[in-house]
Design a protein that fits this description.
heterodimer; A: 640 residues; alpha+beta; Beta-lactamase; five-stranded mixed β-sheet; 40% helix; elongated; B: 374 residues; mainly alpha; three-stranded antiparallel β-sheet; 71% helix; 3% strand
């Protein structure tokens, strides 16, 4: 019984101690519930976000670039489906085996294999490596046939830039290619939207309008597991294609320009004389921008780079030429405006002019005899213009020339490669060369030689502003948000609306003092093309519908020595580099003019033989397309 | 004495079944069923390896629990020391011939399944000490000899388990043993002194920890110091639990576990998955279920006539409680990560076997609650 008593006392001890433990247990459980409450109720949002961050991974896809279309809506820079081959390293079972198989299937170079291995080391295992950016259809089919053996390789259909007219627009559009690091850093928009495989504009409008064309990334969201493997596709956020941009150019005419300058170095520009729309702007030779899309091969690049005709240079905008005789209409106009000459003013041409012991030759050795303005322009008499320039002086001439667009950029900041050229003045020479102006320099400036330098587009604009009656236009290549139709522009110029300050769509300046003077120059240019003995008489079109007025030019690239002058060599006998540049500026139709153009054939010889015949072929097409173009002016208005 | 013997002899099979504790039984069944569903979720909503094995183990061990219950509590009292010694021998065997896995040697291959003797020791230590205090006179509880004996009983298995190495289980064994000392009547001041000594020697103990164990403590103090390395488990576990919210993401919809962000989701981190899918409500529900089980075990202890049964039940209830607390505190980021399963819920045969045997002995105590043991 004592034992039993002791057992009961022991039980009391145990029970009492159990009670203390029991109380402790309750406290601890309450603590755990409190912890659960704080995690699951108070901080639920925080952990829910973290859990989503864990499981959702976003893949940004390259944005789709906006299309560039010509005036008629034809796509000139578009997008094309291309077939690519990607490798997703984390899905590959045996990487080296896969590479060996692909190397055989696609004839990959060892260099490419090294590059892939390098990329694999750099990228995350779920990022795709682009093995081939542009598979041919047969390669694509081949890959798909062997896909069972190519674990981890993924044939992908994607879109890539495409220039359907190949070399026709290269100098206008430029091209796109993989950006380098600096280019990504320089442009905020590119930086934000960059994904591997994306291409950006490297040149031309593609570069200038990058931020409009670029588009926004599509975003794919996937649920991924802890190892980064994609499990489910979640919602897909579509990207927006970049803005569509409409240019003022006409592909038919642009193409014709390319054909006419085939195998020649040179440039053709065509401009609407009222709206300033650039109808065509071709620099020859050109090259195919599609070559650059997937990285140009070394051989192709060398071929372009080493071509003596210099396809990489945009001759229309950054080629600087002496205008030669094409400057004469401006010289004549300037002299008329400054009342130096009138239509009756005559100069006797003996084939040369002596000044301070220096001889200035007319192109015609025998001389033209007594010539008036009209005849001087028609036959491009140099002596006449030496004399006029002498009387006028270079400073007064330069004022007129600058008014008509020489020495200034034509397209403003649209092309950073555009050059402004040079129209010299006495002051310019003093400041830049540190020497005083010499009268002889005025003389050669009068025939467009010497310091004077102009771009083909400047000459085109100059001609357009003579053609439209002497009104300033603002040339443009992009159809802006307030496009003016040809009719509107013409009417407003003719009715003097131009001088209404409220009139927004036209520039506010007339370029002449006396309208009659413009008319005189126009008539002189007409005779140069359409009257007997005119320098471009052979290239005339008699049909008034297509009849045009123009002025030839032949720009010397080097000083002609006395010996050479006596030899009077044929073009073929002169080394290519020393041959004259052939120039021609024109506008038409003569009655009711609409378009102006400038043609330059580098080292083509004389303007009348090499450049003017091109204008004849081109004008028919330009005028024929006018009606079509006019109808198109109410075309959807696309803004930049 | 005679009366008691007669009583003992009178219990028939029918009475045994009748005397089972049905609240405890139903709770265990509920918990088992729940664990199968959760295991099914860890398998990604399919009946795969873990679900199948877990279910098979339940089917085998649940009858085993009833089988254990049908032995008289006196039997378990009589065999307590022997069972303890057998398991010590198993631990010795394992430390020489055990299976190595992920750097520790804890298991023995029994062909049908792999046994982890240290899990069984968690129950055996309670049995052994319960018997010791049952037999010890109250006056001798605080004698030097008895305290040395019980400390040796606790220390011997711990030495083996710690050398496996398995810190988590050794702590649980130590705590299970110490609670019997407490219940047996060891002076409070001894506990306080030991605790103070423990605190003072803590830096010394830490210097003896293995580098990975030190790392766990550092990680516990600041999980963000290495979020993808040492801190990964606890960070992901907290994300899973926290993102569960009030009512959870739904059965089979726990993204953290489904997408493999949760480590050890079948075993030590099973609560994380449960809590992610069933939320605060589910988690509290699970705690209530565990509380019912603990309460029933305590209640059975308190109605038992023998102090062996009483000590065992109270001790075992505390052990279950401690398993739950250590496991939950670990996944909730309240304690450093030590390997410790959640009873019944976690995948693992030995742990379930030990737990079920423990329940079986508790049920035996219930059936024979009037049994006196000399």
């Amino acid at each position: 019984m004592i034992k039993s008593n002791s057992g009961i006392r022991k039980a009391d001890v145990i029970n009492r101690r159990m009670f203390i433990i029991g109380a402790g247990k309750v406290v601890v459980f309450v603590g755990i519930v409190a912890r659960l409450f704080s995690l699951q109720i108070n901080e639920n949002k925080k952990y829910l976000t973290l859990s989503d961050k864990n499981r959702i991974r976003e893949w940004r896809l390259p944005p789709t670039r906006g299309n560039i279309v010509d005036y008629f809506g034809n796509v000139i820079a578009g997008n094309l489906k291309v077939y690519q081959l990607h490798i997703i390293p984390e899905q590959v079972e045996n990487f080296s085996y896969l590479l060996v198989r692909l190397k055989n299937l696609l004839n990959l170079s060892d260099k490419k294999i090294t590059k892939i291995n390098k990329l694999k080391a750099e990228l995350k295992p779920w990022d795709s490596i682009i093995v081939s950016e542009n598979l041919s259809w047969s390669q694509f089919v081949k890959i798909n046939n062997y896909l069972y053996d190519l674990v981890g390789a993924k044939p992908v259909m994607t879109i890539s830039r495409n220039y359907p007219f190949k070399d026709v627009y290269t100098h206008v559009l430029g091209y796109v290619s993989q950006p380098n690091e600096q280019e990504i850093l320089d442009n905020q928009t590119i930086q934000e939207r960059f994904v591997p495989g994306m291409k950006i504009g490297k040149l031309g409008l593609e570069k200038r309008l990058e931020n409009h064309l670029i588009g926004t990334n599509a975003i794919q969201r996937y649920e991924v597991n802890a190892y980064g493997k994609r499990i489910n596709q979640l919602e897909h956020q579509k990207g927006e294609q970049g803005s569509k941009i409409r240019l003022t150019v006409d592909t038919e005419i642009q193409k014709a320009c390319g054909e006419l300058l085939n195998e020649k170095a040179g440039s053709i520009s065509v401009m609407d004389i009222y709206t300033g729309d650039i109808i065509a702007m071709y620099s020859s030779p050109s090259y195919d921008p599609n070559l650059f899309l997937f990285g140009i091969s070394q051989d192709e690049w060398q071929l372009i780079r080493n071509n003596p005709l210099k396809p990489l240079i945009n001759k229309t905008l950054s080629g600087l030429y002496s205008p030669g005789s094409t400057i004469k209409p401006i010289v004549a106009l300037s002299a008329l405006e400054n009342n130096i000459i009138d239509t009756k003013f005559k100069v006797k041409c003996t084939g040369k002019m002596e000044l301070y012991g220096q001889t200035f030759h007319c192109w015609k050795e025998k001389g033209h005899g007594w010539v008036s303005l009209k005849n001087a322009m028609k036959q491009s008499c140099d002596t006449y213009f030496y004399e006029v320039a002498r009387l006028l002086g270079v400073d007064r001439l330069s004022i007129t020339a600058e008014k008509f667009g020489l020495g200034k950029k034509v397209l403003g900041d649209y092309f950073d490669i555009e050059k402004k050229g040079l129209f010299p003045t006495t002051k310019w020479k003093k400041n830049n060369l540190g020497r005083g102006w010499v009268l002889g320099e005025t003389l050669i400036t009068g025939i467009g030689q010497g310091y004077i330098q102009s771009t083909p587009l400047q000459l085109c604009m100059m001609t357009a502003q003579i053609a439209n009656g002497g009104y300033a236009i603002k040339p443009k290549i992009i159809v802006d948000n307030k496009p003016i139709s040809y009719e509107d522009a013409k009417q407003s110029m003719e009715s003097g609306l131009l001088f209404d300050l409220d009139s927004e769509f036209l520039l506010d300046k007339k370029l002449f003092k006396n309208k009659k003077n413009i008319k005189i120059v126009q008539e002189a240019m007409f005779s140069s093309t359409n009257e007997r003995f005119g320098t471009s008489y052979k290239s005339r079109i008699d049909d008034p519908k297509y009849q045009f007025a123009g002025k030839t030019g032949t720009a010397q690239v080097k000083r002609i020595s006395k010996r050479e002058r006596e030899l009077d060599l044929e073009l073929e006998q002169i080394p290519y580099k020393d041959r004259d540049h052939a120039l021609y500026v024109a506008y038409g139709p003569y009655v009711n003019p609409r378009y102006a153009l400038s043609i330059i054939v580098e080292h083509g010889g004389s303007g009348s033989k090499a450049a003017a015949p091109i204008a004849k072929k081109l004008f028919k097409l330009i005028i024929d397309r006018h009606e079509l173009r006019n109808k198109q002016s109410n075309f959807e208005r696309i803004t930049v | 004495m005679f009366q008691h013997d007669r009583l003992n002899n009178e219990i028939t099979l029918f009475q045994k079944i009748k005397n089972l504790d049905y609240i405890l039984l139903i709770s265990v069944i509920l918990l088992s069923a729940l664990s199968v569903f959760v295991m099914y979720s860890t398998d990604g909503g399919e009946i795969l390896f873990h679900t199948k094995n877990h279910f098979v183990k339940l089917v085998v061990f649940f009858p085993l629990m009833i089988f254990v219950a049908f032995f008289n509590i006196k039997f378990w009292h009589n065999f307590s020391y022997i069972i303890y010694i057998i398991i010590i021998l198993l631990l010795v065997y394992v430390s020489f011939f055990g299976i190595m896995s992920s750097g520790s040697q804890r298991w023995m291959d029994l062909y049908l399944f792999v046994l982890q003797p240290s899990e069984l020791m968690k129950v055996a230590i309670i049995m052994c000490l319960a018997k010791y205090y049952h037999r010890l006179k109250l006056e001798n509880v605080n004698s030097f000899t008895s305290i040395m004996i019980v400390l040796s009983i606790i220390l011997i298995p711990i030495i083996f388990v710690i050398s496996q190495p398995d810190l988590g289980t050794s702590i649980l064994i130590a705590l299970s043993g110490l609670i019997i000392l407490w219940l047996g009547g060891v002076k409070v001041k001894y506990f306080i002194y030991s605790f103070i000594t423990f605190l003072i020697s803590l830096p010394f103990i830490i210097s003896f920890l293995k580098p990975y164990q030190k790392l766990r403590i550092l990680t516990f103090l600041d999980p963000d110091r290495d979020p993808l390395g040492a801190g990964y488990q606890i960070i992901q576990s907290k994300i899973a639990i926290g993102s569960g919210g009030l009512d959870g993401k739904g059965f089979l919809k726990g993204t953290q576990s489904y997408l493999d962000f949760l480590p050890e989701k079948h075993t030590d981190f099973i609560f994380t998955l449960f809590s992610e899918e069933f939320g605060f409500i589910g988690s509290v529900g699970l705690l209530i279920l565990y509380s019912i089980i603990i309460f029933r075990i305590v209640r059975i202890g308190s109605i038992s006539r023998s102090n062996f049964a009483r000590l065992f039940c109270f001790g075992y209830a505390f052990a279950i409680f401690i398993y739950i607390v250590v496991n939950l505190s670990m996944v909730l980021g309240l304690l450093p990560i030590v390997g410790s399963p959640l009873p019944i819920m976690s995948y693992g045969g030995s742990s379930m076997l030990a737990t079920m045997i423990g329940f079986g002995i508790v049920l035996s105590a219930k059936i024979n609650h009037k049994q006196m043991i000399a």
